[in-house]
Design goal:
Layout lengths: L1 E5 L6 H14 L4 E4 L5 E2 L18 E2 L4 H4 L8 H9 L5 H7 L4 E4 L2 E4 L12 H4 L4 E4 L6 E4 L2 E3 L7 E2 L5 E4 L8 E6 L4 E6 L4
Parallel strand pairs: 1-2, 6-7, 7-11
Antiparallel strand pairs: 1-12, 3-4, 5-6, 8-9, 8-11, 10-13, 12-13
């Protein structure tokens, strides 16, 4: 099974379109799975003061056509959690956001967004349960580590994953147009990026 992991879209319609086009070109048989922060919450965490908002349009960016592109399974990120916290909307989209799981298993990979532990640190075992392959986003920086040690990588070069503790940050769609192609049967991953024309 091939999976295209995408994360941290933050409501960026044009960048999402570019990444989806690249996935369709290089891995048309891959299942697309989101790793959180699909939407951009317009209320920053430092501005949370207990105020709630009756309309989703007051708390999230949802450009025309964006929601229709989100036709793949996803976990939730910190943006979705903040939207849920401050919105009192009765719109169906909020119910869809509320139903996004915190974690998901795809093959032998555990997906979790990454805001559940300190920024730029590796996930602690108390959060991952000692899973051998953890896939996350949140920091917008593509990276991977083995047994806690950062590893080098080149975009577009497949990496054979060792049979030990591996953590993968899939980068971000917003700003970077990055994603990861994972082949569960071959146990390889390839960091991907839409290149400027």
């Amino acid at each position: 099974m091939k999976v295209a992991f995408i994360s941290d879209i933050h409501s960026s319609l044009n960048e999402l379109k570019m990444v989806l086009e690249q996935i369709e070109t290089v891995a048309p048989d891959a299942e697309i799975v989101g790793v959180g922060d699909l939407f951009e919450c317009t209320i920053g965490k430092k501005k949370l003061d207990g105020t709630t908002y009756p309309l989703l349009s007051e708390v999230l960016l949802n450009p025309a056509g964006f929601e229709q592109l989100l036709d793949f399974p996803s976990i939730r990120g910190n943006q979705e959690e903040r939207i849920q916290l401050i919105s009192r909307s009765t719109e169906p989209l909020l119910q869809q956001i509320i139903q996004l799981p915190e974690r998901m298993r795809i093959g032998d990979a555990l997906l979790i967004h990454g805001h559940q532990w300190p920024y730029n640190e590796l996930p602690p075992e108390r959060i991952t349960g000692g899973e051998p392959l953890v896939v996350h986003g949140h920091t917008h920086k593509s990276s991977w580590s083995v047994e806690g040690e950062k590893q080098r990588f080149q975009f577009f070069e497949p990496i054979e994953l060792p049979n030990t503790s591996v953590t993968v940050n899939v980068g971000s769609v917003v700003d970077n147009k990055e994603w990861v192609l994972y082949d569960d049967s071959e146990r390889t991953m390839t960091f991907m990026k839409v290149q400027p024309e």
